[in-house]
Design brief:
The protein has 237 residues and is α+β, with helices and mostly antiparallel strands. Helix content is 26%, strand content 35%. The N and C termini lie far apart (50 Å).
């Protein structure tokens, strides 16, 4: 095999491996329930509900057994025999589960802190969302429909929304995708999705250093390791 062919094959394999790390797809077959496809470990970040603490902006706090829900980007907690989502998240300073700290931002949900200084914050968010619905060929109609038309939130517990989505049977295949997204925030604690343009705008004082770094490095904005190095540049003196 020619060297160039070998190199091309290696590059393709690497790209496929990266895609598999970034995206994990689930297919809920028509007529079946999402509950039969997704396990507890798919839905939740932690293998069990752990001791958590909510600190509110007014100085008060609360505690309970908590877990992060990948479908809703919310923090769920146990109340009696029910599993409920924390309400009034905008009034919270942060949520701590074990050693992990979560911040909330409207429009994004809860993000998990990777690194933090008084100047900058680096965070990650795992989520699972509905990306497509595909009708089987033997059905009367056939169409692929984009995510925007449908509610992609799956909830758990015994509330009104408790298992409706998880128990819902559809006459189409439902395709879900699990992915990890990364965010940065400045001293104003406003998170933006990690990309070159947003980060330069977020830290104008570091524009020169960031311009040099981006010129010398091809940053993978889907890699936590690569973004950690970028965060170190941003927070260095």
């Amino acid at each position: 095999m020619k060297p160039c062919t070998i190199l091309l094959a290696v590059l393709i394999i690497c790209q496929l491996a990266m895609a598999q790390q970034e995206d994990q797809k689930y297919i809920v077959k028509q007529g079946t329930r999402p509950r039969d496809t997704f396990s507890f470990s798919d839905i939740y970040l932690y293998p069990a509900f752990n001791a958590g603490k909510v600190s509110f902006k007014n100085g008060t706090s609360g505690a309970g057994k908590m877990n992060y829900n990948r479908f809703t980007s919310e923090i769920d907690f146990i109340k009696g025999t029910d599993t409920l989502a924390l309400a009034d998240a905008e009034t919270m300073k942060n949520v701590v589960i074990g050693k992990d700290v979560f911040y909330y931002q409207k429009g994004i949900g809860f993000v998990q802190i990777v690194a933090e200084t008084p100047y900058a914050v680096f965070a990650r968010q795992e989520n699972i969302s509905l990306v497509d619905r595909r009708r089987q060929p033997n059905r009367a109609t056939s169409s692929n429909t984009s995510n925007g038309t449908y509610n992609n939130q799956i909830t758990t517990g015994a509330g009104v929304a408790s298992g409706l989505a998880l128990n819902m049977r559809e006459e189409v295949d439902m395709i879900y995708r699990k992915k990890t997204e990364y965010y940065f925030a400045n001293v104003k604690a406003r998170f933006v999705k990690a990309d070159k343009k947003s980060i330069v705008k977020l830290y104008p004082e570091k524009k020169d250093a960031l311009t040099v770094y981006f010129t010398e490095h091809e940053v993978d904005f889907h890699s936590q390791e690569a973004l950690q190095k970028l965060f170190n540049i941003i927070t260095s003196q």
